Each structure stands twice: as structure tokens, then as C-alpha cells.
Task: structure prediction
Amino acid sequence: MSAHINAIGTAHPAHDIHDAFIAFATSLLPEGKSRLVFERMAARSGIAHRFSHMRPGNIAAGDVDAAGFYQRGAFPSTAARMVQYAHHARDLALAAVARLAFDPAAITHLIVASCTGFTAPGLDLHLAAALDLRADVSRTMISFMGCAAAIPALRVADSFVRANPDAQVLVVNVELCSLHLRETEDVETALSLMLFGDGAAAALVTAQPSGIEIGRFTALILPNSADLITWHIGDQGFVMHLSGQVPGRIAGALREQAEMFLRDAPALWAVHGGGRTVLDAVEIGFNLNPDALRHARATLLDHGNMSSATIMFTLARILASGETGRGMAMAFGPGMVAESFGFKRL
Result:
């Protein structure tokens, strides 16, 4: 018995914030080397658009967002950000779910992966109520696993379907990364913030043999890497640290473990676009052709890094492309952990 992703719906908020953020971050950085480095790296980022539920303000006039949620010198508390999360995460998730065709009464399991906010009752219960799912729907929340969280969510869905061929699993990923904007004069922090945008994806996973067959889940904890990607809850949002060593460690680990990951000579690749250098590292580590990560690079260009939702956008591109064949999906998260699974586009 195999599990299949039969369909994927995606959604992003209305407001493109990428250019506005670059202007905002540049205004904070001291003139000279830091600003020049930031501008050069922004131009080479491979990102053209990132989206948020907050409309950008007039940066030249000192605004950050149009509604004044972010006030220079007095950015909001984590509590205030979580109030925003509770409302907007639900709406964005529902927008993604609305792009799927399914019978709510037939859904046996609901899995929600979200790493950018917390609320109780959780998003699982809010979505179950809004979608009128049955009262005995089995709910699973996957939180704070970072950019790799989509793969553990699909691994859980896979186990449900393998245990019960009649299971119909709704998997939702929703991330509001723009809720964790910070004021900073540190160029490395500014470059990390430049990667992230908001997005949501919803997938229907069943035993029905259509779409993308999934299986062979693999996880690899990279040794001596716990401090390379960290994420802590601060007083003003969640504070992420991305070490400049991450791409090199990824390339080295994949080169050493290529045999473990590449059993099926995949033709299709769904890699989490954590940034251009992360995709470059996967390409180098596995010695891939420059075209191999085209779907991941297109997702990065159009949306930036949406944390756990990103790889689902790339899988949606593969579904829509009409390409068939065996593939490999891979994402990286705090730990540092590489999560992967094999798939076959039918």
C-alpha cells in the first residue's frame, strides 16, 4: 500500500514586500561595507518576490508597514505578533484549502504544520471548525521544526494511509514569516530576514494512485551542527540564526551520504529553497545538472523562503508541469537535520 499526494493547493497573501524590505533594511545598515555587502547579496539572492498580509508603508517617510504594526524603535512584542498570527494564519490556510476539491465529511485525518506561531485552541481546531470536518477527525500538530516540517507532516500522513487504505488525510502548511521582522544593523541578520515570506499549502493524501506517490522517508542529523541553524522565542518575535557555514555543511554531508539518498536515480527534484546558496549546495553535493533544481529555484524566485510551506509549492509546480518519473524531495531544518523522501510523479 502506497500513499499519494493527489492534489496540492497553494496561497500567498496579497502584498509583495521584497523590494520594500530591501529599502527598509538598507536604511538601517550603516553606510559603507555593510550596506554594500547587503545590496550585492540582495541582487544575487535569486528572489524577486515575497509576500505578507501586511502592506508595506512609505519607507522613505519612516513607515515600515502601512497599518503601523511595526513602529521604528518600538517593534511589537511576541504576544502582539501571536494575536496577528491566530487570525491571519487561519485565513491563509483556508485560502490554500479552498483550491482543493474534496468532501469534508470524508477527511479522516488533519495534519497541520506551522512553525511561525502558536495559539490554543490550535490551528487544527480552527480549521476543523471552519471546514466543517467531522467531530472524530484525527488531528496532529507539527510545530517549531522549521523549514523541514513539511516532510515529517507527510511522513505522518504516509503512515496513516499505510495503516488504513480508506484514510483521507488533509495536510496543511502555513507560515507567517513576516511576523518576525526585526530592526537590525547587523548585515548577516538582515540577509537572513531577506529570505523569508508568507505562504500556505494544502495537500490531499490518500491511497488513490494519482498525483505523486510518496515513500522511503529518510532523516539525517548532521553531526556537530546544532548551532548552525537556531530559532528561539524572543521578546520581539522569533529570533533565527543562520550560519554562513550552512551551505558548505550541506554540500559536504550530501556528498558523503549520496548513496543513502540517491537509490533511485531521481529525475525530478523538490528541494526546499532555503536560499540560493542552499540550492547551490544541493546541486554541488549531489553533482546535479544545472537544470535539476529548476522547480525549486522558480519557487524561490517567486515567493522566497516560506519555511515549511516552500517545498509544497515546489511539489505543486511538479504536479502542474505534467512531468513524470521518479523524484527526490529534501528540506533542511534546525539541528541541523536533512529530511527527505522519494516520490514518483504518475
Observations:
- DSSP finds eleven helices and 13 strands in the chain.
- Residues 103 and 121 are 24 Å apart (CA to CA).
